[in-house]
User: What shape does this take?
Amino acid sequence: MLLLIPVLFNGCFKDHCTRTYTIYTPIYKTNDEVRANIRSNPAREISKPGKIYIKGSYIFLNEMDKGIHVIDNSNPSSPKNIAFIDIPGNLDLAAKGNTLYADLYSDFVTLDISDPLNVQVKKILDDQFPFRRYSFGFMPDTTMVIVDWQKRDTTVDIDCNGGGFIAWSGCRTCSFALADASRAAGVSPVGMGGSMARFSIVNNVLYTVSDAELKVFDIANANNPILNNKQTIGWNIETIYPLKDKLFIGSNTGMSIFSIANPFQPVKQGTFAHAFACDPVVADDDYAYVTLRTDNNCRQAQNLLDIVDIANVMSPTLRKSYSMINPHGLSLDGDLLFICDGRAGLKIFDVSNPNDIKLRNHFEGMETFDVIAFNGLALLVAKDGLYQFDYRNLNAVKLLSKIGLKNQ
Amino acid sequence: MVKSFLIVIVLFFASFSIAFAQEKEKKSSCGCRFQSVNQIGLIDGSTDTEFHLQTINGLRFGNWFTGIGVGIDYYYVRSVPLFLDLRNYWWNRRNSPFVYGDIGINLPWPKDHGNDFIGQDINYNAGLYYDLGLGYKLGLRNNHALLLSAGFNFKRLSGERKYNFCPFLPPCTETSESFDYRMKRISMKFGWEF
Assistant: This one.
């Protein structure tokens, strides 16, 4: 009799499974409203710091998908957040002289920053970055721009048998690099960016990479960039880093070296392949330094620093790999390599001997994203804000300042 | 966490081993005696059908028994129920029907952490556990008996995970989701009491 119970009553009981998650609903403004508001607006607190650019005594810090913070860094011990340039969809930036170039989703914005407190729009080129048309799966029509997202937690019933949410991850780590003033021979000083860059300026040319394309803009007339050339260079392109007459372009599957001896006709010279990973890159005359990391978007790989011998750019070879925790952006100043090792903090290595690099300093307690190190000053973008370190004395590297995030 | 569960299970099996050695001891002055109930069975629900096993050790007062139980439940997400048990034998005979009720907590002990397309582990949290049912005792010698029982069994687990969500294009955003599992099953058990 007891054994009949499951037969008789099984249909009466049903498992109940639920999932609670956040729904994002876009908030729109018209194109005209958005473009009219691209100017130096009152400063706002940093919330989601992204890529960083230094121009003279100013720091231009991307607020992911929102715009650019203008920070007066004339005193690195006391930086001042002085203005915010509203650019919805902005992720990348580069500057040359008094001109700042930025993306607004798929559009390309040129700004006069001669007076950072009174930034002026000089030109907007529509749809230069078509891979940015979509955001969170939405495709606004051409008259509207997504300026924000409304978040709402919701609970739904799911099939206990494994149905429910399937994530679709297609993001790639964004990064852009900018030539620093000392490497861009002569000419108008361009600003300096971190290694996680997609925009890069060399002399009077702006190079941008999308997920598959390399575009070349003539910026001889700084306020009037003109698309000169574009070429498909692969898949899952992530970063670009210039060094003299070379571009180092990182992708999920490797690093490629392009010659820009003819600035408007980049020519691929060599490739260093690696396992599927996200990889920012910096380089000097002899070696390229590539960090590889795994996360939800970088699939299966290891967390490494690869040092690649580029003496023969046609055939770069791995010199040595070093294990890391969660490496992101990096920066090179002489024999000092600064690595943002994600949740493991900032690490400073002496790379004078690539076969045996030495850890000189390790700063923990922050989740690091990108770094620019130049002339004894390191600017570090971390999850909790913007740090500045004085590393002129490696035995006494000191924290100069920190601009924290909103609500911290 | 797993180590703690194993220690709990070992302690309970040790306790009834000691009790087994003491089973011939006469009733104490409270009129009660030690009793151990050890069961294995099936749990059947809309999502799964799995085995479960339990050991309950406590005191028998006349036709009443109360004890503390621990088990392993393999249904959906493996877990370790930890509960209080109360049962009443209807007749004061070797063979008797009985009614039982268990209530406690269900501690997660997952074999995997819900790895799916996201590839991020789910961290599970404990939830409510209870079981109510009927059974029949077939008496053997010296207070030993075989037990057959069936009833309604409920266990609850919750879980959460955080990950970077990158829908198609940048930026990625850290997001989190949580889950709630309420499992309503029929449990059938075959056991040995002494």
